Amino acid sequence: MDLHHRYGPAVHLLDDSYLLSLLARIGSPETETAILAPLVRSAYRRLCQEVLAREFPTEEVRVPTRMAASEPRAFYEGRRLCQRTPLVLCAVIRAGILPAQACFETACEVLHSRQVRLDFVNMSRVTDAQGQVTGVRLDGSKIGGGIDDAVLLIPDPMGATGGTVARTVETYRALAGGPPRKVVAMHLMITPEAVQRITHAYPEVTIYAARLDRGLSPAEVLRSIPGTFPDQERGLNDHQYIVPGAGGMGELLTNSWV
What we know:
- It is built from seven helices and ten strands.
- Helix 4 links the parallel strand 8 and strand 9.
- The relative contact order is 0.17.
- The strands form two sheets. Strands 1, 4, 5, 6, 7, 8, 9 and 10 form an eight-stranded mixed sheet that branches.
- The protein has a single domain, classed as Rossmann fold (3-Layer(aba) Sandwich).
- The longest helix is centred in the N-terminal third of the chain and has 23 residues.
- The chain is α/β, with parallel strands linked by helices.
- The model has no long low-confidence stretch (mean pLDDT about 90).
């Protein structure tokens, strides 16, 4: 089930109590590195399952079960995820590759591993003298080819400014070959600022998020349906970090506060 909002049909804010409970623990000051990694893995496994079930193409099949050895009618006839459509996962290497790796493992449970690819894009924030985020920098990448007719998933835990998704989409747009079948950005938390940037500049991107964070919005805006007052919604502080957010989740995942 999705949370009701007014951002448009390309945005899916999941109303999932299990995911929201995971995020509450992920952002808690009491959650340490050893506990955080499995929580993030669980959250992304659940998010990936939801995205694949809703967005990945399906096919009609007739496949035998092991019962076919003794019963000739033991065939499953029905839908399954298409075993011919390629799936590309982009691991944005800023705080480790755990989100993308969890999605890769989840996808390989229901798709042939030969149709699932895991790319790596090494990206870091660029800030000015006042600490404001001014963009992102690519320091290196490992991309296994084009994305012609593939479903491209971008697991980006903290959708703060939308810059990571924007730069990733631009990187894949520059590749030779045809366009992807679909592009999906997958966030644990996202701000209204990121939603507006992505939906306006990259209408081909579908957004899935486990939680919308707009904690710096006025009280009357917080009581409204998300997207009702887009110009007044705010989820970023002056240093462009998410509020309420998760308070340095990336640093905690790597146990490196630099």
